[in-house]
Amino acid sequence: MDKLFATLPEMEPGWVWLTGAGPGDPGLLTLLAVKALGSADVIVYDALVDRSILDLARPGAVLEYAGKRGGKPSAKQPDISLRLVQLAREGKRVLRLKGGDPFVFGRGGEEALTLVESGIPFRIVPGISAGIGGLAYAGIPVTHREVNSAVAFVTGHDATGEVPDSVDWASLARGAPVIVLYMALKHLGRIAERLMAGGRSATTPVAVVARATTADQAVLETTLSRAAAEVEAAGIEPPAMVVVGEVVRLRAAMDWMGALQGRRLEPDPLGLRRRDQTG
């Protein structure tokens, strides 16, 4: 392992590494992310970075919280970007650590543009997005060739905090067999109404995966028309991913974490093999 790490690029003073920490489980970190954690002078991290990941920081590294939470006091994005510039100009090795992937609804692009404008050298280190890795930990594949040939990743709110009007919800309802929603709990009822108005069935399977890949992971299986009410009744709070589509039914066969706790898995929940045999 030491030989492998020796081949990886070094984190230089005055550089910023925009790095994805994955959905929560430290085992899902990339090698470059681990190396950055062990090299950085300052780690500027967001609210979705699990504490177990921060525990991997080198002794003496300064941890600066720059998280955002809807409806709560949060750092302003321009201030965060300028802070990265300031730290780099001080000659620090700066790790900007974001949950998931920095370029998937993570505002990494905004920070990168600020670094470019300020002449700060940087590296992008991708991470596993919660919309893929988090659902996999829930036993839900975002694609299955017998179910869907397309998947849409959509944010549940825009820069104003409201349901994005820039999204053509009717076209999305008709054209995307699987829809993965980030940051959607607050407006889940309104989003469901728009999808149903666009033609999506009220009985479409929905899963809500909260605190994905962590020891506190919780999964709620429901339907499009009932999702908002059942999320509220269950007391589910962010962070959570929402997936809409028939792939949710495959969880009956692929809930590998549930199987570790004794859940009996159903081999063919969609009747695909039976269909092949009779077809």
UniProtKB/TrEMBL annotation:
Its annotated pathway reads: Cofactor biosynthesis; adenosylcobalamin biosynthesis; precorrin-2 from uroporphyrinogen III: step 1/1; Porphyrin-containing compound metabolism; siroheme biosynthesis; precorrin-2 from uroporphyrinogen III: step 1/1
Gene3D superfamilies to which the protein is assigned, alphabetical: Cobalt-precorrin-4 Transmethylase, Domain 1, Methyltransferase, Cobalt-precorrin-4 Transmethylase, Domain 2
- A Gene Ontology biological process term: cobalamin biosynthetic process
User: EC number(s) per UniProt?
Assistant: 2.1.1.107
The Tetrapyrrole methylase domain, residue ranges: 17-227
Q: Looking at the keywords, is DNA repair present?
A: no
Q: What is a GO molecular function of this protein?
A: uroporphyrin-III C-methyltransferase activity
Q: What is this protein called?
A: uroporphyrinogen-III C-methyltransferase
Q: Which InterPro entries match?
A: 4pyrrol_Mease (IPR000878), 4pyrrol_Methylase_sf (IPR035996), 4pyrrole_Mease_sub1 (IPR014777), 4pyrrole_Mease_sub2 (IPR014776), CobA/CysG_C (IPR006366), Siro_Cobalamin_biosynth (IPR050161), Uropor_MeTrfase_CS (IPR003043)
Question: Keywords on this record?
Answer: Cobalamin biosynthesis, Methyltransferase, Porphyrin biosynthesis, S-adenosyl-L-methionine, Transferase
Which CDD domains does this chain map to?
SUMT
Query: Which one Pfam family would you cite for this protein?
Result: TP_methylase
| Family named by the database record | Belongs to the precorrin methyltransferase family.
Q: What class of enzyme is it?
A: transferase
